[in-house]
Design a protein that fits this description.
By secondary structure, the protein is an alpha/beta fold. It is 43% helix and 18% strand.
Length: 364
């Protein structure tokens, strides 16, 4: 009987020890950092689009400290190979994956459907799933303000725009820029050159040079690097930056202003929701009200009284009193696209495939 009691006590002790060890190991897993994968279309050294995304990633890392571990993948093509990159990140233990370029979206959706326990965040697209969100910002608002500045500073009224792809995002930005310009100079034109690439410093520069050769004296861009702006400065002309503060980087006041992103303002709450267990799929389109977008400081070459005019318009946008695509609009063939008093819906803006009056070029 005593032997039986002793054996029973031994079994209970071993079981208790095993349970304690298992609990300890489980607690250790719970305390392990959340692994977050980040996929960039170009290296952060582009000093533009991916650079600013990486600034958002850095802000997220600083915010969470050792609660989060980030794995970066840079220069990933927008093709089937991106699916393998996402799956490799999942194999590394990533529970959240961000991808920062438009044409990743279908590949991310494919992977999201195969891995329902991983959270996916796609920038600039429209596809979604139960475990996949899309996010972007109302950069068209900053494009409008930069168009105002460009028209004010242009001696000729001939503005140039180096565009990547003819996606609704890029078209919408060009239209907003043109509307801002024509609010200041009703005769201003915006000539568009397509490069058909997000990131190619050589092609971006060539696009700018082609516009400068046509007499454009302010160059704006929807491209990932500083090359279009540099080309303009080298010709003694003006430039509008994008993504990052090009004037601060290049050190030339002829870069009049740069529309900029605050990606960390989305990434931080998205990761926090995963940590809290409250993450939900969403289609997010933030603007001035939540500081997803902003302008860099404006060049001292721009008259101070005009800067106040730009700031007043920005306040109107911020307060919801006015927005870029409100009111009568014609396309660049003269056809009426929107009547006076109407406000364009988000859906119409997100699918925009036509140019406004004053834009020289074709979408298709």
């Amino acid at each position: 009987m005593k032997k039986g009691i002793v054996l029973l006590l031994i079994v209970l002790l071993v079981s208790s020890f095993a349970f304690a060890q298992g609990t300890k190991e489980a607690a250790g897993s719970a305390d392990a950092p959340l692994k977050v994968g980040v996929i960039y279309i170009s290296p952060p050294g582009d000093m533009g689009y991916s650079y600013m995304h990486d600034q958002g990633t850095i802000a997220m890392e600083k915010h969470f400290g050792d609660k989060v571990q980030v794995i970066r993948m840079e220069g990933i093509p927008e093709n089937e190979s991106s699916e393998r990159v996402m799956e490799n990140l999942i194999d590394e233990g990533c529970k959240v994956i961000f991808a920062n370029s438009y044409n990743y979206q279908q590949y991310m959706l494919n992977v999201a459907k195969r891995y329902p326990n991983v959270y996916f965040e796609h920038c600039s697209g429209y596809l979604a799933n139960d475990n996949m969100s899309n996010y972007f910002g109302r950069m068209y608002q900053m494009r409008y303000l930069s168009g105002m500045i460009a028209a004010k500073m242009s001696p000729s009224g001939k503005l140039g725009y180096v565009g990547a792809y003819n996606t609704p995002e890029v078209v919408r930005g060009i239209n907003a820029f043109a509307l801002g310009a024509r609010a200041i100079n009703p005769k201003a034109t915006v000539t568009v050159v397509w490069t058909n690439t997000w990131f190619d410093p050589s092609l971006e520069r060539q696009g700018a040079i082609a516009l400068l050769d046509q007499g454009c004296d302010v160059i704006a861009q929807h491209q990932d690097t500083t090359e279009p702006a540099k080309a303009a400065i080298e010709r003694g002309k003006y430039a509008i930056g994008y993504n990052a503060d090009f004037r601060g980087m290049i050190g030339d006041d002829r870069i009049l202003v740069s529309p900029m992103w605050n990606w960390g303002n989305y990434m931080i709450p998205a990761v926090q929701s995963v940590l809290d267990g409250t993450w939900k799929s969403q289609s997010y389109w933030g603007g001035l009200e939540d500081e997803m977008i902003h302008l860099s400081s404006i060049s001292p070459l721009v008259p101070a009284d005009f800067v106040k005019q730009v700031e007043a318009k920005q306040t109107e946008i911020h307060d919801g009193k006015w927005d870029v695509f409100w009111g009568a609009l014609k396309d660049n063939t003269g056809a009426v696209r929107q009547n006076a008093g109407q406000k364009m819906s988000d859906e119409a803006m997100l699918t925009m495939d036509w140019f406004v009056e004053g834009v020289v070029g074709r979408v298709n």
